[in-house]
Amino acid sequence: MDDLFLKIIAGEIPSKKxxxxxxxxxxxxxxPKAPVHILVVHKERTESINDTDESKAYxxxxxxxxxxxxxxxxxxxxxxxxTIINTGSDGGQEVFHLHVHLLAGKKLGxxx
Length: 112
Ligand code: 5GP
Fold this sequence. Notes:
Layout: H1 4-9, E1 17-20, E2 24-28, E3 36-42, H2 57-74, E4 82-84, H3 88-91, E5 99-104
Antiparallel strand pairs: 1-2, 2-3, 3-5, 4-5
This protein binds guanosine-5'-monophosphate.
């Protein structure tokens, strides 16, 4: 199985860790699109939103509760931040292991 993020979680590929708990690992994006650009990754392999159903609902609570903790940890909870999940080709997904982008540190342009 060729899963870049599992290799990062396992420490086989180095990363700048920001946060970790039993279910989630978060690290700095190698190609940041904002002053703060963190990838929040579930330790369980799930390819994308399309790979989830009701039995996997805990993936979302694990990811977004971690986002909240990281935002508090980095002191961006009050100033604000953006979360993005890319899905599939048109969504711009490059790594097929479900993850949340956490962007902050400047006023982000509006997409929607
Ligand atoms: P996606 O496009 O799949 O939503 O996001 C994948 C993200 O992973 C991209 O923002 C990309 O910069 C980041 N990325 C790809 N390879 C690496 C890597 O080896 N290390 C880190 N820290 N980030 C990576």
